[in-house]
Amino acid sequence: MSLGFYHRVNNMDLKLIPEDSEILREVAEAWDWEKDGDPSELVKAMAKLMVLHNGIGLAAPQCGISKRIFVMGNPDHLVACINPEIIS
Question: Residue 3, exposed/middle/buried by CB under 10 A (0-12, 13-18, 19+)?
Answer without folding.
Answer: exposed
